[in-house]
Amino acid sequence: MPPPTPAMPRRLSVPKSLRRQRLLHAARVFWAAPNTLIGLALGLLLLPLGARMRRVGGALEITALRQPPRRPWPFAAITLGHVIVGTHAQALERLRAHEQVHVHQCERWGPLFLPAYLLAGAWQGLRGRDVYWDNPFEVEARRVGGC
What pTM value is reported for the model? Predict the structure, then answer.
């Protein structure tokens, strides 16, 4: 590249390591995108019911209700790609680190995450173990993120 002239402004160069980091992040987001689209669809369905959205730690958190539900839901929070849907704000606060582990799992497994998660749970069930508590994805999320 020729040296800058008065007519040609100087470009700030981005370090190679930062460019590589950005490229890897974009690849992880793209790889997890099929799951994220499912999460966004769920979030859009909840918006007319009063759900709230905010970005936290690289994920879109959707709070479905303003207070804890009267009757328990099958989950307090669920992660679909870069979308975390929680029943209420207190649940998201309590489970945030755990659900962020699932975000990273979605980045690793991409479109294979949901089938792998379900198959891992089914395998545990076939072995006479608990499909949720003994699921390796949940075991990792509890070990790394707590809860």
Answer: 0.84
With a cut of 90, say whether residue 119 has pLDDT above it.
yes
3-class state of residue 80 by DSSP: strand
What is residue 77's DSSP assignment? E
Burial class, 17, CB count within 10 angstroms (exposed 0-12 / middle 13-18 / buried 19+)? exposed
**pLDDT given for residue 5 in this prediction:** 59
Burial of 5 (0-12, 13-18, 19+ CB in 10 A): exposed
Contact assessment for residue 100 and residue 55, using Cβ atoms and an 8 Å cutoff: no
Distance (Å, whole) CA 112 – CA 123: 16
Instruction: Tell me the pLDDT of the chain averaged across its residues.
Output: 90
